[in-house]
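pasting for ref
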Amino acid sequence: MVVPIAAVPQLNATMNAGISCNMNVSLQAEGYLHDWCKDVSSKTRFPACYPAGVPEWHPENNIIVQLPDPSSCPVAVSPEWIIAGWSWKYIQLAPGELYPLSVNQSEQAFMKLIRGSVLDVNQIGVQTPSGHWETFVVTPPNTERSLELDHRLSAIKAGEKGAVFALMVVPVELFNVPITAMDQAPTTTIRGPHSDAMKWTKFPTYFPDAFPESLEFWNLAGILLQDHSGARLNYNQWWTQSQIDSTDGGYHNHAGTPGNLTFGELHMVMYSAAPNTGMIVQLPHTISTETVKKPEEIPENNKYFWNQRDNEYVQMTLPLPPGYVHGPLWSINASNGEPTRDCVGAVRYPWHGLVTGPINAAGGTSQPPRYTLWVVFEHVPEVIKVPTSMLQYVTNAYLQNFVDWPTPACKSKSESESEPESDRQMLDLSHSHVTSAFLLFVSAVWMTLI
């Protein structure tokens, strides 16, 4: 399929009026962060030898975008990337600053906050005493929300703590273009600074001994966003999965991620393979009170998105059409809205996964089969605080299930060492970046982190 030139986003030049400075964009430097890294095995190198936030399967050749200090740069804009036909930029605003918008009627803009807040952009948030509608990094828990920006919006204004966000613009006609191949547009429509390093890679290529080469599960990595001090702020990577694989979006819960690498994970779908594409989520405080028990698998002959409700361990589904993101799926401290942590400092999640199902109860697929394409935002925990007022007024029957889960007692070092060998091996699997990446899609493998 050839995407017309007109279908590639062209942002109006007037959008850049008043931009005071740019962001530093570079390709990740070759080599390691420490001299000792070259003398140890590849397994030992990760994560200490690489910039914080990059994934284990793609620790090198990431694009790094570093923000300037907002105190000396009121408005900063990154260069533009085109990723699978979508325009993509990062914007930083100092408190109260404006970013002007000018989007053609043939295009649709979306905005995903990464830090801070913005005012009056018609996205769900909290109404301030002054009457403004303030949008935050997270939307209400256990819900899905569109990131669409109204065409009547002339500018994006930052809240009192400033804002960092991804601005995406997509030609409306691409909403009618399904992805049916990984070697054709719009999947291959990728350009921008260092975009030659962004290549769709079959996940089995990273781990040939673990997964069949035929698996239609692809990864596009990645952009690491850092603040002006060089600390990680967010990591974006893109994924596709085909309908034809016998997968149901296997469960993962990010357990055991080191506290300095843990993140708040939010998914936004860009191209949907089926009307039932979205998240499946286990509810805490129900069958598995502490979400420790891994949900049982669904029989092969019953693997349909809507039948996930028949699995007593997965009681909630969140459909995600293109341009939609889900809210927090992690445990939330009711007193301050911050994520709660496990014994090693990882943000606590229920078992969950992203699925792209068949199109009917008989297990049919589109012809030709389609891929779902989505982007993952991996936020640092410091920016994913849920406003406590949002916890109070959001009418969601499942909200109470995600607040203040009972915390299992942490084991001492001696207790951990006395565990049976089989238990320790299972723990290692559940903490593996490699295994967890794949469990999001293949239900037969234990996974916790993507």
